[in-house]
Design the sequence.
């Protein structure tokens, strides 16, 4: 019976990813995946100890057994205070909604926008969830824009309303993309996947600049801690908005799916993260004062205590070491003999991702990527990062671009570059694969 049910629709990028991985070397012990979207820098042991003690407390005092968590109102109040201070904007507790990760926040927000007749304008490249959720919830994508703001209309019939999606910094390139020159959208999503690991302008300053003056009744800010803290399995995020209809949609979904159960660990992680961002950005002599402010905020809200000052200092040092690895690997892309070159305007501002171009173009790019996969080097090219064949051809013509994960150990990262250089010396297209960039 189940064979007669049609397969659910799927975004082009996921179809492309499946085709590229088909036949790839399955031996994870010897395979290098140089573009995986996961922070491979180890999480802070001090953070791990704090979270372990927190979880133990929540189990023992019944917090994890409660349906309607009493801490939710306090957590919203503390987050409004801490994040508002960091962003230099006034936030109210009613503006805050905690979700289990940024991907969940994206899905729920796009579901609501689809219901209310919004079409999407997405950055290219982008995180797969935007295209996939658009397909799943029926939100038409009316355009894609690249890093310099150039817009590619998809030809889809204009929707009643428009939502502009900005990923700040872009989750694939690590850069702040210029927005397309067009009329003001009816709604804006600001997705912030990471804030640590910058070169050049501080990401906090970039985010403050972008959020200054944003009308939260027509916008949603999504902030997650999982990538910066190297804890992708710990789903923690917050949606900041004053759009009443969206907030009601989020609340209804939580009631329907989770019977009003809360996520106290995720809430505390986000509170710690919001206060940690302020500590990371400020001079060291201000650490004591900033930690005390954060601790006082959660104490007034009646929440579990944040870590002690020494934990903040050690986690900050750990994140600085992480950012140094990102920088070291980014500089390796510019080193002598590198098989890749970075694109002007796409230099990473934060996070562990970079988007670089093959120095030696291959006759057939995607067949070459598939061939590398069979040889033990899994690469993530343009097509797995959203969009369509037409959009990639229009916005990045002849672009043989790869996403690089700067969080790999320098040894593994260099091994990956060496393998790319080795394979670009003998570009032999694999049979049976198409040459176009977006449909392998």
Sequence:
């Amino acid at each position: 019976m189940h064979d007669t049910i049609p397969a659910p629709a799927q975004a082009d990028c996921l179809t492309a990813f499946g085709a590229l991985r088909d036949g790839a070397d399955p031996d994870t012990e010897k395979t290098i995946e140089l573009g995986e979207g996961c922070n491979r820098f180890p999480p802070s042991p001090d953070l791990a100890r704090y979270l372990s003690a927190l979880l133990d407390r929540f189990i023992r005092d019944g917090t994890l057994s409660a349906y309607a968590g009493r801490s939710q109102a306090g957590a919203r109040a503390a987050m409004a205070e801490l994040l508002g201070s960091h962003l230099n904007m006034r936030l109210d507790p009613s503006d805050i909604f905690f979700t289990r990760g940024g991907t969940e926040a994206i899905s729920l927000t796009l579901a609501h926008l689809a219901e209310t007749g919004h079409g999407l304008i997405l950055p290219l490249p982008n995180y797969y969830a935007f295209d996939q959720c658009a397909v799943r919830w029926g939100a038409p994508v009316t355009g894609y824009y690249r890093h310099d703001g150039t817009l590619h209309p998809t030809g889809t019939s204009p929707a009643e309303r428009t939502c502009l999606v900005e990923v700040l910094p872009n989750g694939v390139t690590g850069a702040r993309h210029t927005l397309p020159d067009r009329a003001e959208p009816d709604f804006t999503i600001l997705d912030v996947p990471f804030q640590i690991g910058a070169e050049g302008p501080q990401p906090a300053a970039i985010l403050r600049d972008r959020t200054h003056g944003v009308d939260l009744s027509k916008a949603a800010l999504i902030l997650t801690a999982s990538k910066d803290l190297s804890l992708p399995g710990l789903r923690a995020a917050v949606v900041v908005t004053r759009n009443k209809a969206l907030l009601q949609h989020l609340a209804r979904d939580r009631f329907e799916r989770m019977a009003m159960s809360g996520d106290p660990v995720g809430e505390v992680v986000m509170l710690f993260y919001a206060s940690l961002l302020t500590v990371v950005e400020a001079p060291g002599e201000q650490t004591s004062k900033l930690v005390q402010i954060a601790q006082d905020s959660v104490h007034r809200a009646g929440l579990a205590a944040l870590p002690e000052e020494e934990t903040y200092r050690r986690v900050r040092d750990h994140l600085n070491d992480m950012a140094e690895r990102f920088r070291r690997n980014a500089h390796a892309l510019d080193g002598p003999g590198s098989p890749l070159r970075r694109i002007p305007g796409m230099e990473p501002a934060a996070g562990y991702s970079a988007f670089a171009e093959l120095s030696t173009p291959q006759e057939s790019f995607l067949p070459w990527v598939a061939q590398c996969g069979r040889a033990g080097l899994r690469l993530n090219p343009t097509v797995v990062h959203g969009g369509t064949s037409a959009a990639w051809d229009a916005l990045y013509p002849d672009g043989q671009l790869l996403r690089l994960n700067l969080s790999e150990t320098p040894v593994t990262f260099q091994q990956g570059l060496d393998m790319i250089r080795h394979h670009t010396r003998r570009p032999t297209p694999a049979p049976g694969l198409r040459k176009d960039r977006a449909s392998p």
